[in-house]
Design brief:
Order of helices and strands: HH
Mean pLDDT: 83
Radius of gyration: 21 Å
Strand content: under 5%
Shape: elongated
Number of helices: 2
Helix content: 25-40%
Structural class: mainly alpha
Largest sheet: none
Low-confidence stretches: none
Number of strands: 0
C-alpha cells in the first residue's frame, strides 16, 4: 500500500495476566503493587484494601470534611 502514510507494525508480546490474589497484595491495589515490586520499588504491606474499617473511617472523615467546607 503505497501512499497511505501508514506503516504496519507488530504489537509487543503480551505479558501473562496475574490475578491480584496471587500478588500477595489486597485487590484494591494488587496489580499496581505487583508492577511496582517488579520495577524494584518497595511497596508497604498492610495498606487498606477496598473494604474494611480503615476504608469506612476514611470515607466518614471525607464526608465530614466536605460537610464542614
Amino acid at each position: 500500500m503505497s501512499g497511505t502514510g501508514s506503516t504496519p507494525s507488530t504489537p509487543p508480546p503480551r505479558r501473562p495476566w496475574i490475578p491480584a490474589s496471587r500478588t500477595g497484595f489486597p485487590a484494591g491495589y494488587g496489580h499496581l503493587a505487583h508492577l511496582q515490586t517488579k520495577a524494584g520499588f518497595t511497596v508497604r504491606q498492610g495498606l487498606p484494601g477496598l473494604t474494611g474499617t480503615a476504608v469506612e473511617q476514611f470515607y466518614s472523615e471525607g464526608k465530614q470534611w466536605l460537610t464542614e467546607a
